[in-house]
Amino acid sequence: MMTQELPLNIEGLEQYQSKLAGSSSAWLKAFRQKNFDQWASLSMPTVKDEEWKYTSLSEVVNRKFQIATRHQLIEDRQFDNYRDKADINVVLINGVLWGDLSNLKHLPQGLKISTLSETLSHGNTEVQDTISKLTPNDTKAFLSMNQALFLDGAYIQVEKNAVIEPLVHIIHVTSGITDNTVVFPKSFITVGESAQVSILESYISFGPVPFLSNAVTDMRIGANANVTYCKSQAEAHQAMHVGTTRIWQERASTLDSFSFIHGANITRNNLSILIKGEGTNTIMNGLYGLDGHQHVDNHTLLDIQHPNCTSYQIYKGLLNGSSRAIFNGKIYVHSLAQKTNAYQLNKHLLLGKDARVDTKPQLEIFADDVKCTHGATIGQLNQEEVFYLQSRCIPKQMAIQLLSKGFIDDILNTIKNDSIRGKLKPLIVKKFPEVKL
């Protein structure tokens, strides 16, 4: 019998673990148990923890959760409007890969897609080795919980020298659940040497149901590879989303990443990129659009361990109502990482009088031959600009919308992939159909 007090109260956990153990290989069973023991030894982070001081989890800790047992899509019509048949769609319902909803029968040469549980059970040493070496970052309790309790996930492999033209769209759908359900979306992506691929990973739900999404994505990018990766979080406003994305980037590779957040009531988004080779190029851009009482906490870490690397990061937030945003972006330059060129900027536009921002761009530099800059801005619309547009017979409300759109488009237009950009723009337009001061 399970007698220890766990960080999160989950009903029927012992029976669920027995079911997992019965269907796992020896390696996967040991991996789950190791992570469960780590999770059981931890406490949920509180506002007393430096990395969580602006985000309270009391609302989560005081609830009793249950793990999703149904893995069936019930919102077929809404989902069809979201999916583009021209993409390579990889659809997971409550953490389980659904082949019938995906289109995986005629994949381009050099692309392999399978369930993550099957990959781990069959002893894929590259995946096992990468997962064990990636750092846990600031969401350690949630990471251990995900790796102990995930049922399935998606494994995406792009082989060496492969060029994948269609967009690979991983769609995590939370559907058919009851109140206070917890789901564990999980993906592992490996991109071989000199390969090219564009990936959009979306998190969506349609019903007004409170739930916890504890999501983990791990990625390994081989030498000279070129990857475009975007994470889009558009879950219901009653949800809480804790996302952990860990990326291992090797020599002379290029990563163009984008984080897009406009769903959930509370979002904690952790992105950690580990630079494990010389001459890499890394772009870390993001946009979050909030209204009502939404709360978004973005933490990013770029860990540069090798010389001659470049990075560029701009995160923008558009806040309406009484929403709140936190940004903590750290760039860590090791002593060996000479000739590093790193740029970081965080900008916020406050439309709501009660909106609030806490921002903390950070540089930790232990090399002496580098070029690193960072900055942050928080402001409201320039009333002179609003007045100028009004003097040109543009109504005040439309003037506000135009200026807000300019703020948004500036960052969205950094997305080079037309298919990804085309999917994100309608979401943010729906978010602010009528901007009010």
Please indicate the percent range of residues in DSSP E strands (runs of 2 or more).
Answer: 35-45%
Mean pLDDT: 92
How many beta strands in the DSSP annotation? 22
The dominant shape is: globular
Low-confidence stretches: none
- Give the biggest beta sheet: 12 strands, mixed
> Which structural class do the helices and strands define?
alpha/beta
End-to-end separation: 56 Å
Q: How much is the radius of gyration in Å?
A: 21 Å
Number of helices: 10
Helix content percent band = 10-25%
Describe this structure in words.
This protein is α/β, with parallel strands linked by helices. The protein is 23% helix and 38% strand. The chain has ten helices and 22 strands. Strands 1, 2, 5, 6, 8, 9, 11, 13, 15, 17, 19 and 21 form a twelve-stranded mixed sheet that branches. It has a ten-stranded mixed sheet with strand order 4-3-7-10-12-14-16-18-20-22, covered by helices on one side. The longest helix is centred in the last third of the chain and has 17 residues, at 396-412. The radius of gyration is 21 Å and the shape is globular.
Task: Indicate the topology.
Blueprint: E1 9-11, H1 13-22, H2 26-41, H3 58-61, E2 64-67, H4 76-82, E3 88-93, E4 96-97, E5 111-115, H5 116-121, H6 125-133, H7 140-149, E6 154-158, E7 168-174, E8 181-183, E9 186-191, E10 196-205, E11 211-221, E12 226-234, E13 240-249, E14 254-261, E15 266-275, E16 281-290, E17 295-304, E18 310-319, E19 324-333, E20 341-350, E21 356-365, E22 371-379, H8 383-391, H9 396-412, H10 418-431
Parallel strand pairs: 1-2, 2-8, 3-7, 6-9, 7-10, 8-11, 9-11, 10-12, 11-13, 12-14, 13-15, 14-16, 15-17, 16-18, 17-19, 18-20, 19-21, 20-22
Antiparallel strand pairs: 3-4, 5-6
